[in-house]
Amino acid sequence: MSPQIIDGKAFAATVREQVKDYTHGLKQQHGITPGLAVVLVGDDPASQVYVRSKGKHTVEAGMNSYEHLLSADTSEAELLALIHQLNADPAVHGILVQLPLPPHLNEALVINAIDPSKDVDGFHISNVGLLATGQKAMVPCTPLGCLMMIREYCGILTGLNAVVAGRSHIVGKPMAQLLLAENCTVTVVHSQTRNLPDILRSADIVVAAVGKPLFVQADWIKPGATVIDVGINRVEQEDGTTRLVGDVDFESVKEVAGAITPVPGGVGPMTIACLLANTVTACCRLNALPEPGFLNPIT
Ligand code: NDP
């Protein structure tokens, strides 16, 4: 049986199109244009690429994009002052502070200074708590994108065994919360887990977010399972060039899985699409307008 290769690029394009349509409707019917502010501190090249890409997609979706590029020596007080200004700005519906921050800045303090209703990354402690208690939250973009793809390929998830590899605040833990909310039986494995391959073999759904190139092996996967690869790892090849690989050994696992995301072209594009979706959701909530329900699994 050949596996379904989950085309995250095409899926993300569909979500972005839905966001664009909804944005158009908000402008036409209510005269409101959703606005996303992205704050970058420092000149990390990878972060600069992400921020540029976010800005481009925001504009393409018909929204306003506000970029705040701050020098690496920006003080905590200056950064907090900017966040307070964005919190108070009615044209800004979503605020994203690009991580990681330079070491002299307290990440938790900065993230928790964002108005939770504008926290489109879903990292504010209020949103973490709301998600954990099954209430209406801003949901972190990467797990949200994963869930959309899992739903598309598995249908109703009730009763399925899901294993999430990785327990970070930004991917593993919120992913586990979302799958629990879908009535999956969820196991989270991490670096201290014993018999990890045996646990993975019981999974109907595997989400790999460990940051280890080609970590998940074919003989750890139950035949027909859905495998979502969050990992982004740059590995050096014999000829000295580098290539991107995931946390899953795609070539061998695809022979066993029922459906699998590639890297690149799987989860990555969905993360930005979900950021745009969260911005529209935030805009609707802030203006007490109906939300685009198809975008958010927690209602
Ligand atoms: P973190 O480094 O924060 O977390 C990694 C997790 O993997 C930890 O919980 C760690 O366990 C666990 N882990 C590490 N080694 C092992 C092991 N040998 N066996 C089992 N578990 C292990 O990473 P992130 O969650 O931030 O990111 C994970 C990957 O996803 C990275 O490759 C990152 O680049 C990618 N990513 C991709 C995104 C996208 O848009 N596609 C977005 C965000 C991340 P422990 O807690 O015990 O240390």
Summary?
This protein has 299 residues and is α/β, with parallel strands linked by helices. The chain is built from ten helices and eleven strands. The protein folds into two domains: 86 residues, Rossmann fold; 128 residues, NAD(P)-binding Rossmann-like Domain (Rossmann fold).
Report on the structure:
The chain is globular, with a radius of gyration of 19 Å. The protein has two domains: 30-115, Rossmann fold, CATH 3.40.50.10860; 141-268, Rossmann fold, CATH 3.40.50. The protein is built from ten helices and eleven strands. With 299 residues, the chain is an alpha/beta fold. The chain has helices at 8-30, 45-60, 76-88, 107-111, 125-132, 141-154, 172-181, 196-200, 250-253, 267-286, and strands at residues 4-5, 35-41, 64-70, 94-97, 161-165, 185-189, 205-208, 226-229, 233-236, 242-245, 259-260. The chain has a six-stranded parallel sheet. Helix 1 (8-30) runs parallel beside helix 10, helix 2 crosses helix 10 and helix 6 (141-154) packs across helix 10 (267-286). The structure holds NADPH dihydro-nicotinamide-adenine-dinucleotide phosphate. NADPH dihydro-nicotinamide-adenine-dinucleotide phosphate binds at residues 142, 165-168, 170-172, 189-193, 196, 209-212, 230-233, 267-268, 271.
